[in-house]
Amino acid sequence: xxxxxxxxxxxxxxxxxxxxxxxxxxxxxxxxxxxxxxxxxxxxxxxxxxxxxxxxxxxxxxxxxxxxxxxxxxxxxxxxxxxxxxxxxxxxxxxxxxxxxxxxxxxxxxxxxxxxxxxxxx
Length: 122
What we know:
It is built from five helices and five strands. It has one domain (about 5-120): 3-Layer(aba) Sandwich (Rossmann fold), CATH 3.40.50.2300. The protein is α/β, with parallel strands linked by helices.
């Protein structure tokens, strides 16, 4: 059974493209275009990894991550921040979270696969 990857992204064309890429490299995508829905679904879906956009409303990716790690106590789920912002690397370095990584948009299928395999193995 393939690993479930939850993709939290409010840009529908990106969401659709990432679904294709995730399926192509052998993962089961869980597509969530609404960050609040993602928080509601997380326990039921139990993803192996979360791909998380930073720039969303009404809650951004940082706020989602804070709730996920704090209020929800889910520190074991790896999270790959999916962003076009180059300053994210600096911010995550200060968080000291070994289950947190970054993928820069636009991402190639090779980068996506390598980013996921860093946390889930091959």
